[in-house]
Amino acid sequence: MINLTRWKLIGYVVAIFVTGGITGAGVALTIANQKAANPAHSLKVTQRLRNRLGKRLDLTPDQMQKIDPIINKLGIDINAVCSDTVQRLSALLDAAEPQIAAALTPEQKVRLDAIHKKRHALLIQPREKK
């Protein structure tokens, strides 16, 4: 069996944990970005809100017509917040990556760089589809 020192073992465990964390954050950011960049998502949210308010408050058609512009603006605002959040998360990950890379082996740094490039490609891709 391979003879590992205690510190090497701790180092490997930390490196695996950090790599998993970065991968998980990249996947979460990708999903969030796809939802933020997808106007259909906010359309679903606003449609649900419109339906719930209509049912729970027993709104008349006239009342629904009056609140429609408010709910439509809310959908636009939700998209803006989601997009801003994705950009802020991306900036946080970008700032943390050099610090994380300092604790990695050269092979792990290559994988981290691949994760970084894939995340950035996914961030740019939905915006180009618009």
SSE map:
Elements lengths: L5 H31 L2 H18 L4 H41 L4 H24 L1
Describe what is shown at a glance.
The protein is built from four helices and no strands. It is mostly helical and 130 residues long. The termini are far apart.
Explain what this protein looks like in three dimensions.
The protein contains 4 helices and no strands. It is mostly helical. It has one domain (6-129). Helix 1 (6-36) runs parallel beside helix 4 (106-129). The model is unreliable at 126-130 (pLDDT under 50).
Search tags:
88% helix; disordered C terminus; mainly alpha; 130 residues
Helix vs. strand class: mainly alpha
Compute the CA-based radius of gyration. 22 Å
Provide the residue-averaged pLDDT.
81
Tally of helical runs: 4
How many β-strands, per DSSP? 0
- In helices, the fraction of residues equals over 70%
pLDDT under 50 segments (min length 5)?
126-130
Strand content: under 5%
Largest sheet: none
Our count of domains comes out at 1
The backbone outline, from C-alpha atoms, is elongated
Write the element-wise H/E pattern from the N-terminal end onward: HHHH
